[in-house]
Amino acid sequence: MSGSTDCPYEILGVSDLADEAEIKSAFEAKLASCKQAYELLIDAKKRRAFDRQKTDKKEKEYQLKIEQLEKECEKGKSPDEVKIENDGELEKMRKQLGCVGGAGHFTGLLTYGENKMEIKFEAWESLKVAIAGWAIQFKPAVKWNGGDGKYYYLWFENKEGGAKFKATARGINWKTGEEAYRRELQSEKDGTRQLIKYEVDPYTVTYVLFNITFL
């Protein structure tokens, strides 16, 4: 069997000893699964529901990891001192969030001194959270949810000041699933808050991500 991804045996998932009946059965199964995947992805509503389900599962994993971190921090340790045995993913998890459900943890981590992290939003959802002296607001670009059709808005506010930040923004292209539309942004003062505006066509992305550094 060939190691190439173009190998017909690998495509159908059969061995080079497969008989005609096995090949036909594998083809029909592959065709059925491809048809099912196509019908799901071509339907915008079904696709959003599927993406949300995947995100919710990942978000639960992130929240569990971060809750472990927060428990350790409550014991008087700083985040950099916290090490959970046999958990090599913790350092990544404590700096990274999934969709909007984790924003409470995000603001909570800020109170423990984190100044670099990643946050991810669904492209059509809005969010406003205030906790532990921090406030975050995300406004989508889609017009049907109050947007202007052009910009995604992200605000931070700290009751003691010091919310100025920079961000690398990207969107997840809805067709390819790949990151695109990268922008380097610097926050500007907007009343008592700091604001960045990320310009991207809202109908080309399913998620927007921000790698944030507080200055």
Automatic annotation (TrEMBL):
Listed InterPro entries: J_dom_sf
Domain of life here? Eukaryota
Protein name from the UniProt record: J domain-containing protein
